[in-house]
């Protein structure tokens, strides 16, 4: 069985290092959610009966369903020990970095440069008859704004990945129609006690 994602050390520097942040999310999603079918297949026990050579005589277009469904306790164990803990780690990272993105950033190394550029743009003489592009000024965005945009995108990706994982889990485990976010929230509430 796969292991849940490990919790990275959460610091503002981790969030502002978008390469490290994206790599963490990509690896965590790849080991659990993107390979959900393989993870669930690993829970299946080998056949109780021996190999039957006559089974290879004809091509079977439809796979028998009895080998694809998992026992409820196997599914519950996978959700409790691997899936939900990984989701919790990623949720913690996304929440923390979203908080960093909405907080003031006194350590922004480019803030002085942006302030100088803003002053120069205000002092500049604009004559659009001579140069129609002279009025254009595109201020560099702060790293908190860039991080906030990344967090919005990553939350949307996370939502899609969780829906897909939950649907595969539902097909293989015959679970109820409870939405993924409700099941995760219930699990999270039991972990906080």
Automatic annotation (TrEMBL):
Pfam families: MIX23. This is Caffeine-induced death protein-like protein Cid2. Belongs to the MIX23 family. The lineage of its organism: Eukaryota, Fungi, Dikarya, Ascomycota, Pezizomycotina. It comes from Clathrospora elynae. GO terms for cellular component: mitochondrial intermembrane space. PANTHER family: COILED-COIL DOMAIN-CONTAINING PROTEIN 58, PROTEIN MIX23. Coiled coil: none annotated.
């Amino acid at each position: 069985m796969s292991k849940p994602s490990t919790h990275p050390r959460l610091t503002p520097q981790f969030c502002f290092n978008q390469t490290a942040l994206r790599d963490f999310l990509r690896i965590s999603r790849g080991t659990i959610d993107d390979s959900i079918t393989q993870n669930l297949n690993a829970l299946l026990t080998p056949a109780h009966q021996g190999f039957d050579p006559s089974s290879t005589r004809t091509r079977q277009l439809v796979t028998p369903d009895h080998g694809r469904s998992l026992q409820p306790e196997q599914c519950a164990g996978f959700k409790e020990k691997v899936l939900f803990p990984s989701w919790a780690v990623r949720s913690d990272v996304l929440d923390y970095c979203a908080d960093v993105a909405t907080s003031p950033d006194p350590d922004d190394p480019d803030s002085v440069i942006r302030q100088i550029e803003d002053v120069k743009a205000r002092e500049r003489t604009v004559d659009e008859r001579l140069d129609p592009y002279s009025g254009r000024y595109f201020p560099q965005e702060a790293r908190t704004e860039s991080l906030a945009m990344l967090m919005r995108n990553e939350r949307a990706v996370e939502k899609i990945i969780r829906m897909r994982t939950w649907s595969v889990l539902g097909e293989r485990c015959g679970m109820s129609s409870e939405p993924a976010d409700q099941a995760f929230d219930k699990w999270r509430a039991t972990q906080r006690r």
